[in-house]
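Changelog-linked ticket: zinc ion example.
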Amino acid sequence: MLTVFNHLHTVHHGKVEMFRGQLVPCFEVPARADYVLRELQERNLGPIESPAEFDGSAFARVHSSRYLDFLANAWDEWVALDPANAERDAFPSYWPIRTFRSDVLPASFAARMGLFSYDAGTPLTSGTWRAARAGACCALTAASHVLKGARAAFALTRPPGHHAGPDFFGGYCFLNNAAIAAQALRDAGVDRVAVLDIDYHHGNGTQAIFYDRADVQFTSIHGDPHTEYPYYLGYADERGAGGGLGFNRNLPLPRGTGFEQWREALIEALRGIAAFKAGALVVSLGLDTFEGDPIAGFTLATPDYLRIGEDLARAGLPTVFVFEGGYAVAEVGANAVNVLEGFMQ
Ligand code: SP5
Ligand code: ZN
């Protein structure tokens, strides 16, 4: 399988994130992508290339222009507030929740930081915009290979994307790489695109982007939001809105779920995807379902990921894989590459 690797990913390197009242070292670190790259090379999974250049128009198909403008300038604005900020990651402190306005774009940087985010665990750093942009280009390049007839392609990038919505960042995500790829497939003439999100955390950003659409079906298997991040979305009764009713499917599972039960949800998800008669599949490939993951609660083991790849292949669809979460750094390479190898067998 061909991999499109974001060689610029290292310029996004958060120092700390807010967790239980403390700033703790980031879980979402550059080494994650490097372990996956090394495993791809060691196991000779296929060619590894750099992304093609794309202008921002494909990003603007799923993100608002005021959000993209904010991201493009955020770091410079942060440093302009205080030159000492160059040594610190930027975090939001204020959020416009219920009863506040979101139509006004405040002049204050802090106020806009909160307007365009939903958690304090997602540091914005000097290289965030450059890394995220190159990552979205990886997703677009992978989609272009599939459009040209490749059976599958893998966008290996960080920061991840599936928590980023039309106009917000969060959950370590800034640009929604999977949504950008799915929209690009649609814009190139694929009538129906299925997105399957197998990260431990509900793909709230992707769901939000496609919630009222019947041309992109979104399915997510994830930790029950009653107890798991992102808490406020990902319940089974979220089925889509308006013309999109019936094209959103959430399969939450309790913390502690093991592979046999998880796989039943996967088979059920694939049944729904088959019924949708998609022309292409985008997989949000999170590996934080692994038993050793430090921030998640399922108990999948490394060999299980081969079987996941085999199950995904049986959908018989041209497939774009997009790297998402997975924080057991030393094992994330073997787990990711097992999915891809299982798929190609
Ligand atoms: C892409 C992705 O996987 N984003 C996940 C963002 C999760 N951020 C919140 C982490 C909450 C951690 N709860 C930890 C319990 C650790 N003992
Ligand atoms: Zn995750």
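Closing comment: Example verified and attached. The chain has one domain: 2-54+127-344. The domain at 2-54+127-344 is CATH 3.40.800.20 (Arginase; Chain A).
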